[in-house]
Structures are given as structure tokens and as C-alpha cells.
Amino acid sequence: MTLPMTLIIISGEIDLSVASTLGMSSALLGVLWQDHWPMLVIFAVVLVVGAAAGLVNGLLVTRLGLPSLAVTIGTLALYRGIALILLGSTTVSDFPVGYASIGVNPVPHLGIPYSIAIFVVLAVIFGVVLHATPAGRSIFAMGNNAETALFSGIRVKRVKTWLFVTSGAIAAMAGVLWTFRLSTAVQTNGVGAELNVVAIVLLAGVSIFGGRGSIPGVVLAVIAFALLQNALLLSNFNQEAYGIVVGALLLVSVFVPNAGALARQAREGFRVRLLARAGHQGSGP
User: Fold this and answer.
1) Which of 201, 234, 246, 269 gives a 20 to 30 Å CA spacing to 63?
2) What span, in angstroms and rounded, lies between the C-alpha atoms of 267 and 52?
3) φ, ψ for residue 270 (rounded to 5)?
4) Rounded distance, CA 190 to CA 241, Å?
5) What is the dihedral of CA 148, 150, 153, 157, to 10 degrees?
6) For residue 266, pLDDT beyond 70
7) Model-level pTM?
8) CA angle (118, 81, 59) in 5-degree steps
9) Exposed, middle or buried by CB within 10 Å (0-12, 13-18, 19+), for 54?
10) Contact, 187 vs 86, CB < 8 A?
11) Alpha helices of the chain — where are they, by DSSP H?
12) CA dihedral angle for residue 14, residue 20, residue 25, residue 29, rounded to 10 degrees
């Protein structure tokens, strides 16, 4: 989910509903499996529903002009509520061994987990799109100045809508992988994961203000974040205080890249106050 989030933030927006879309997709998978739907059909339905959830976000942001932060906080609660309606307190865990083993057994002949293999493939695709195509240059242009990008002929609304659709589809895919990894479909799957996703993206050097970032940086940040999680787990760190670590990473990730600009603003404000004070004293009797 960090990959489409990277493109969305670079474009000047944000999507905080990804973890709720994951949970909704997990719940939908469980419900449809309980109803004895074929698994491949379930995959297709879950992917379409995830894309539709992203489309709702995209249309609200681009067509109605609503801020993406407010929109995706709203849909964060909405999609989590839908997951609760779908499954309630029910837990589904009777998935076929062939699918449930996806979260445990490695890819044959490669020796790496399915989630990592899928992430690597998607990282290559997203990296090529962002750094080697006109679409990627358009995303950077929108993040730097949306109005200039619009007057340059870039279809800003269309591109941003597709970014949200992609984010929803990838979150749905993540919901499937999460479900099979735990061999459990439950409406609380992925609760709070949106903060991890944003923290990783910002830790990678992607500017929260848009216009700057890279997929290789995000890949390295994912690895660093995973190592940090494992280190905390092995050190018997209090998991209830894990949010402190994520919150600190978010603050550091926002502050450090913008420290220079903040310092310049502080110096400029101090200089203006000095000039104003000097002018006030000079105008005295």
C-alpha cells in the first residue's frame, strides 16, 4: 500500500482510507467464502470493490474539490463500518490450505514469501511509471503546482482519480494477502495500518507537501521499517506503546526534510520583527 500512497502524496494528496479498504476487503472475502463462492470469482469481486472504494475517494476529491485529508478520514470510518456490517463479530478461518499457505510458505523455487515477491514486482512497475514515463512526470508536476500542471495540458483531475482507484485496488489486494497470511478474515484486520503506511512513505523522503519522492527510497524505507518492527519484537518492547514509535517516526519524517525551510522562515520572521521594531522606534518623537 506504500507504493500507490507514494504517488498520491507526490501528487499533493493523501489517502488515509487504505487500511479500512484492506479490512473491508478481508471481510468481503470471508463473507463470500462463507456463501460458497468460487475463490477466483471472490478475488475479482474484492478487487473491483477495492477499486470502487478508491474511485469514491477520487471523485469526491477531484470532482467536488474536497480536501483529500477530510475525505479519506471520512471513508476510513465508512469502509471500516462496512466491514463491521459484513462480518460483525464473526471470524472466518476455514480457507483451503492451498490459499492459506500463501501467507506462510514461500514462492516455489524462489524461497521468498508471496507478499515480498508481489511487492518487488509492483515496486518495479510503480518505479518505471513514476520515474520513466510522462505519467510520472505529470504526477511530479501536479505536486509542485497543480494550477501550472493544469495549464500545461495535464489532466489533473483524471490522473488523481486514477491514483485513488489504484490505491483502492492495491489495498484490496493487500486485504487478500493479509487474510491468507493470518488464515483469518475478521473486520478488524489492518486497524491502524494507515499510520504505518504514511510513516514509511514520509520516512522515505517523500514530501508531505507533494512534488518530491522516489520509489527506491520507499523500498528502502519498507525494509528499514520491517527491521525496526522485528527489533522491537525481539527486544520484548511493549506492543501497546508501539504507537509512540510510529508517531515519533511521523514527526521526524515531516520535520527533518523541512528543517531548512522552517529555519529560513524563522530567520525571515525574526528579521521582519527587527525591522518593524526599528521602524517603530525611528518614528517616535
Assistant:
1) 201
2) 47
3) -65, -40
4) 17
5) 150
6) no
7) 0.87
8) 70
9) buried
10) yes
11) 2-10, 18-34, 39-62, 68-87, 97-100, 114-132, 134-144, 146-151, 156-182, 193-203, 215-234, 242-255, 259-282
12) 170
What are the cell numbers at 172? 484490496
Residue in the structure block whose three cell numbers are 507526490 = 10
**1-21 burial code (b ≥16 CB/10 A, e <16):** bbbbbbbbbbbbbbbbbbbbb
CA distances from 201 to 109, 194, 276 (A): 31, 11, 41
CA pair distance 282, 268, nearest whole angstrom: 21
Question: Rounded distance, CA 52 to CA 59, Å?
Answer: 10
DSSP 3-65: HHHHHHHHTT-----HHHHHHHHHHHHHHHHHTT--HHHHHHHHHHHHHHHHHHHHHHHHTS-
- 219, 123 Cβ separation under 8 angstroms: yes
- Which pLDDT tens digit goes with each residue over 192-248? 899 899 999 998 888 888 889 999 999 999 998 888 888 887 877 776 667 787 778
Sequence length of the chain is: 285
Q: In this structure, are residues 168 and 193 in contact, taking their beta carbons and an 8 Å threshold?
A: no
Beta-bridged to residue 185, according to DSSP, are: 92
Contact 164, 33 (CB under 8 A): no
Question: Taking residues 160-167, what's their average pLDDT?
Answer: 96
Alpha-carbon distance of 213 to 142, in angstroms, equals: 13
CA distance 161 to 57: 8
Q: Over the chain, what is the mean pLDDT? A: 88
